[in-house]
Amino acid sequence: MIELTPWAIGWICIAVVFVLLIIGIPVAIALAVVGFLGFWAINGLEPALGIIALVPYSSVSVYALSVIPFFILMGNVAYHGGFGADIFRMAQNWLARIPGGLAHATVVGCAVFGAICGSGLAGAATMGRIAIPELFKHGYDRALSIGTVAASGTLAQMIPPSVLMVVYALITNQSVGKMLIAGIVPGILTATSYSLMIALRIKRNPELGPAIASVSMADRMQSTRDIWPILILIVIVVGGIYTGLFTPTEAAGVAASVILLLGFVLRRMNYRKLIDSVTETMRVNAMLFLIMAAANIFGVVLATSRIPNTLSDVITQLDLPPFLVLCGIMGMYLVLGTFFDMLAAMFITLPIIFPLVIKLGYDPIWFGVLIVHLCQVALITPPYGLNLFILKSVAPNATMREVIRGATWFILMDVIVLIIYMVFPQVILFLPHSMD
Fewest C-beta in 10 Å: which of 124, 255, 395, 419? Predict the structure, then answer.
């Protein structure tokens, strides 16, 4: 009988998890079952049963995790309260009269809504229902319209209060506050790159996005005043965390309470919408926490097998240029994003990759922004990009070919922006470092 080493068992577990995900097994089940069996194979049944008893509770009974349900609740209340429509109307009134103005308004609207949403899927679904009818009604190219919403919706993954930023910080033991603040400039830069690409395409072919009638200055100012609740939330979350007035958890709790209060005061919320918001928050939070608990069980196997340490030692001994190794890691995540849910990929791969990145001398906050940016790309990369399917369901009579054609230009811009982040890390780091 062949006796396998812990290192070999660890790699077998990784391969089995990926196979299970490919055939459609839920992420939490795949990670927990394989983690339990792998630890059993290395240490025996009794220690494995102890891991099952202790790790799930210790994984989620962490104060810092409280930030996640608060941010998710804030996004759900913003969605059910119709705050996204106010944001789009404001951007539309200011930008619609320029060529491609509605597309630019969609980018701005998604970026601002992302600052109270935290989820790329929710951002695309919300703004898709609002922006797509307007874009189609005014004769915008269908592929450009769909691609704009699909890609711009992902900005919520980067701009605080990004849930993925929090997840990365918790997986890698980084400052949640610094990770959230680190997403501000990259979020703005990505949105700017989208608008630049839209402007260049429409300048070359004006029929892609015609200008529409201008509105009065009074209407513009009124629509700007209408988004004051959103501005309050942004100041609470971003300003509170950056200045140190609030911890991320406190900022999330205050912001969730404020948007609930404003929702009822402004008559945007009722009992039915409140129940829907809380129910959706519980569902998403339960899914995330279950995955976290399962990932920690799987992480025990990785730690026991010493795969992360061994891998980082081997690669550093090869004496490869660190930037070449980084390019290989980025390429790996780009490929993973086309076939796997990136949240699952983060939980599986970061315990292995992160020690190597630190050993190569890279900043963990900067690397986290790169990973979250790749999660954005994954949402619009076929065949697994979930935002593509959301927009296909939202846009009337849209074909998947049309959706993919619209997203391709934005994927190109995402890759260009990724290269900028890799070459110029201070673009990302100057804000979080200024918090020290």
Answer: 419
